[in-house]
Structures are given as structure tokens and as C-alpha cells.
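[Automated response] Your request has been received and processed.

Submitted sequence:
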Amino acid sequence: MNTASPTLTVAAATPPRPRSAHRWWALAVLALAQFLVVLDASIVNIALPTVGTALGLDTAALAWVVTAYVLPFGGLLLLGGRLADRFGHRRVFLVGVAGFVAASLAAGLSVDGTMLLAARAVQGAFAALLAPASLALLTQLFPDGAARGKALGVWGAVAGMGSAAGVLLGGVLTASFGWPAVFFVNLPVGILVLVSIPFLVTRDRATSKERMDAAGAVTATLGLAAAVAALSEGGALGWTSPVVLGLGALAVALLAAFVLVERRASHPLLPFTFFRNRDALAGNIVMLLVGGSTVALFFALSVYLQEVVHLDALAAGLSQLPLALALIGIAGVVPAIVTKAGLRATLGGALVVLGAGVAWLALAGGSGFVAGFLLPSIVIGLGLGATFVTATQLAVRGVSESESGLASGLVNTAQQIGGALGLAILGGIAAAQTSALLAAGSDAAAATSGGFFLLFLGVALLAIAGAAVTALVRSR
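Generated structure:
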């Protein structure tokens, strides 16, 4: 492990950290809130056919039930992190949770597609406040040492588990209580978080007194939103569609303007000197790749289990329980491994395990449920859980307290943008291969299986690329 000190360090005179008499209980509540945010990106997937029937939505409109959440979430995360630094992490966190709960209630009560899409957009916007503020609170409650490693281990496991649990809970809730339950499940958990945090985190001060970079916030938010929209719609409308090309051109123009604004701003939203911290740079690149891997993987698994293995929605959700359990189990072991092997070595090994598990899944088609799905899914859970823990820890290592919200926002932004990019590219490859096999005379199940073979191999390659980044982008 490279032990050289990162460029960004905590200043000698830092603002007082949030006090908590029970910081481990605070961690549990913060992780629970993050679980909801990640869960809501995937829990709706299995419920979509039922939603379409109930609200009269066609396939294109159903895709927007997911996109309407991802767009504001991915686009506003960077701004959300900076708002947390400016106005206080606990304050922004509570505002985010309250808005998220209210929007979840509206989504569950929706009587038509317009109401549901609007509620999903509001959910995403408040999630963009909640997510970076909660991770920033964690890094301040656990400033360094073994305790921080354990805390980030819990955090990373919860973030990974949310994606896996979304498919499981989506199937169970939809089958048992109907589609509104996938939104109503947020209410009791969100209310618990709102009631608990003021007692568990008893002091909160803004760590930055700088003026907000309004021009940077507007260009970054709209640029990222346009990029996510182009990536999300590319597969549905075609990459040469005027709408997709227009959104892509708008994204490039806005993000180029953002770079120019940040270079000239006296108090930039994203100071590019931040990336002199090679740990933060490597952690965010890895999270970008892992985000692409995870979203594409769980989307594919949901369809694969129902269309190729021929499980119903409930069974498809339950079949991913071993993966989720493996992910949870490894989280308690990773801090000890990091202590012995080092953070980067553990992250690189976790990515290799993740890639090997997905490659096994791709190559074991037709081997039966146990050898062809159950065993490789457990390996995937182990690799994914360890990767989320260590990538998050690397991305915030050595970051000053005044930039903890920025660092947290960047981690979440990398994960969301990576997810949109990975699903768009790998999903497009899988769809093209499936269409080619159907045209060649293959039956539907074989064609779908052939498409997902390429998708799973792509996910494995993204994991191996993350391991290469971990090895090559070294700390200063």
C-alpha cells in the first residue's frame, strides 16, 4: 500500500465536527437513508408492467418512470454536495429526506402518468440533496482511523445492497400489495430518519463560507442532466435520433461552458485542484466504472431470470437473495482485509473477483440454476460488496473537511452517470445481438441469452478496467 500523504489534508483549524453521543446509531440511520436512495433507482423495475396497466402507460412512457428519477438525481448531485458544505450537512440532509418522503407519497398516490413522472422527478431532486450530505456527515462523525474504515464498510455495503434489494423487494411488494407499495415503503423509513437524526447528530455548522458559484451550478446541473437524458434515450430512440443528438450536443456545450466558468470563478463549484488528490481521482473513476457495471448487471438479471430462466417476478426477486446476503456478509470482513493488505490492494482484488463472477455467469449459460446462476451470483455479491466499500473509502481519503460535501457529491455523481452510461452502451449491445440472433432464426429465449452473454462480458471488462485504474493511478 502506498502510504504517501495525499495532497488535500485537513486544515489545522477546521470547523467543529457534528457532535453525536451515539455515532454508530447515527451511522445506521444515515446508511438507511442512503439505502432508500439507491433502492428507488431499481425497486420500480419489476413493478413497471403493473404500473403501465394501472395508469395506461406504453413502453416508452414506462421508461421515463426510471429516467424521471435518474435525470435530476444525476444532474443535481454536485450542486447538492456544495449546498451541504455551504449551509450545513445535517440541515441539507433533513431537507432532502423530507422532500424525498413527500414525493414518495405523491408517487404512490398517483392517478395518472403525469402525476407519477412529476413525483419521480421531485424524488430525484431531493435525493441529490440527501445522498452527498449523508456521506459528508459520516466522514465527519468518523474522521479517521479504524472506526472510519468500519463506518465506510457499512456505507459501501448498504449502497451495493440497495441495487440488489431493489429487485427482490420490488417483486415481493408488487405481488403482495400492488405497485404503490414500492413507493409507500419509503414513508416509515423516511419518517424514522427524520425523527432520529436531530437527536443523534446534535450540532451542525457550515464548513464553507464561500459564495455559491451560480453560473457553475447552472451549467453543471443542466449539462449533466442533458448527458443523462441522451444516454437514457439513446437505446430507445436510436443513437442517430435528432432528439438524442440534440441532447448530446447540448450536454457537450454546457459542460464545456462549465469548465470555462470554473477556471475563471473566484469560488468554483468544482475546483479542479481537487483532483490533485490521486486517491479521490482514482476512487471516482472506479465508481464511474462500477456504477456502469451495477446498473447494467441488475437490469439484465431481472430480465434474464424472467425471460430466459422463466421465473415469475416474485421468484426472480427471491433468487437474488444469496447475492444480497453475500454482499452484506463481506462488508464486515473488508475493514480487516484493508488493515492487512492495504486499501488499493483490497479494491483491486475485489474488482477482479467481481469481474470473475460476472464472467462465470456469462460463460455458464445452460449449466442449470445452481452452477449457472446461484454460485456465480454469490461470487458477484462478494466482489461487489468489497468494491463499494473500498472505492467509497478511496474517493474520500485525504479530503479536507470543508470539501467533504463536494467529495460526497462527486462519488454519487460518478455512480449515477456511470450507471446511465453503462446501461445505455451495454444494453444497446445486448439488444443489437438479440435482434441479430432473432433474424438468424434463433428462438426468443436463445436470442435473449445471446444478447445478455455480451452484456455480462462487458460488465466483467468494466470491473477489470477498474482494477487497472486502481493499480495505475497511484497516490502522491
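Summary generated for your ticket: The chain has two domains: 23-212+269-472, 213-268. Residues 296 and 423 are 5 Å apart (CA to CA).
If you did not submit this request, please reply to this message.
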